[in-house]
Amino acid sequence: MSATASGGGAPRVLLFTGKGGVGKTTAAAATATLAARRGLRTLIVSTDTAHSLCDALAVPPAHVPAEAAPGLHVLQVDTQKALERQWGEVREYVLDVFQELGLDEITAEEITVLPGAEELLALLELREQAAGGRWDVIVVDCAPTAETLRLLALPEALDWHVGRLLPVARRLLRTLAPVIRHVTKVTAPGEEVVGAGERLHRALLDLRELLAGDTASVRLVFTPEAVVLAEARRTLTSLSLYGYRVDAVVANRVFPEEGADAWREKWIAAQSALLDEAVQSFSPLPIHRVPYLPAEPVGLDALAAVGAALYGDADPFGPVTARPPLTVTADHELLLALPLADRDAVDLARKGDELIVTAGSHRRVLALPAALARRSVKDAALRDGLLRVRFEAGGPDD
Predict the structure, then answer these.
(1) How far is 35 from 42, CA to CA, in rounded Å?
(2) Which domains does the chain have, with CATH numbers?
(3) 325: which residues sit within 8 A by CB, 6+ positions away?
(4) Of 25, 96, 118, 368, which cross-links 372 as Cys (Cβ 3.0–4.6 Å)?
């Protein structure tokens, strides 16, 4: 039996993502099924609005954790109820404002549905489930890559903005609420609205701590195609930029060599070259291969077979061994892993106590620890996938 990395504490959290259509839902469902059959209390959650997870498991949708098999529970988040619980006061205020401005109730309801709300609320539900102590393993079937990256960047990005805005907003509202009502004829948000924003802010920080912590990791799913592999490479860089650890890569729909005819031999040769490239790109990460199956794996038995083929003798639920992407050394150096990053696409800027790192189309604002915030940047270099930022020595602690 596989042991969970948490040792009875936080559950082992596994997030699966990849380009749309590569089979990440199948990989996630197969992993969860395998975990349950190894005796681990397992929950699988989907943040993908396509909601194909229950179809793959051949079970009805469930808005609370429902048992799909012994030890395996599935959860499809009820967005409406989660929205009311997580964002209720703020949403009600915005709804009231729109109605005060003359919008009918149905239109106002539609406008208050936030873009990306379903995926975000599913992740917040994941946080609550992880805190409950009920699970050994939580598997997350994430949305396609672009949406996942936006969501995983959100908690830290909101912290940067909200940490500055909420205290100011609270002070201003006490003073300006009567003026806002008099001038705009619109009710100013009350203390309960600001408090709801603060609670959501704390929940997002807790979520960030969970997903970037020592018990969580991401698994990238790709198919041996040039375009898909290129996106998987960029995704690895971006996930590391945001501080998330990738511990394995899944190559799906790999043609078996046995019994190949002339047509499949061409596919096998093309896939083989791309898989060799993937091994070089993602090393030292393990690449688990799933063969191209004669039929779509639907149902628990079919998924269990995929899980066995996927991992073989490996332990997919063991502790996370990958180092955190971001570390600070005793010599006042900041080290940020940016595997496969193009040097020309990486940019670094300093703004006050923050370091702004850009890799391709993704950017992260890093709040520097006190020991570095007092020092100037001496130099920076990207070498072998590691961004090394050195700070000037000197200061009261030296």
Answers:
(1) 7
(2) 9-323 (3.40.50.300), 326-391 (2.60.40.790)
(3) 240, 241, 243, 244, 245, 336, 337
(4) 368
Q: What is the β-pairing status of strands 246-254 and 137-141?
A: unpaired
29 with 56: CB under 8 angstroms?
yes
Asked whether the CA dihedral 149, 150, 153, 154 is positive or negative, the reply is negative
Separation CA 246–CA 221 (nearest Å): 11
**DSSP secondary structure string for all residues of 212-272:** TSTTEEEEEEE-S-HHHHHHHHHHHHHHHHTTPPEEEEEEEEEPPSTT--HHHHHHHHHHH
Cβ atoms of 20 and 291 closer than 8 Å: no
Those residues with Cβ within 8 angstroms of residue 334's Cβ, 6 or more apart along the chain or in another chain: 326, 327, 328, 355, 366, 368, 372, 388, 389, 391
Q: Which residue shows structure tokens 């409950």?
A: 132
DSSP line for 149-191 = HHHHHHHHHHHHHHHHHHHHHHHHHHHHHHHHHHHH-SPPP-H
DSSP codes joined into one string, 318-337: S---SPPSEEE-TTSEEEEE
Q: Among 388, 394, 362, 307, which Cα is nearest to 30's? A: 307
User: What integer is the mean pLDDT of 363-374?
Assistant: 89
Cα 50 from Cα 226, distance rounded (Å):
25
- What are the φ/ψ torsions at residue 358 (nearest 5 degrees)? -115, 130
Reported pTM = 0.83
Residues 190-226: tens digit of each pLDDT: 556 666 667 777 888 888 899 999 999 999 999 999 9
CB 130 within 8 Å of CB 210 = yes
Please provide residue 388's backbone torsions phi and psi, each rounded to the nearest 5 degrees.
-115, 115
pLDDT, one tens digit per residue, over 128-146 is 899 989 999 999 998 888 7
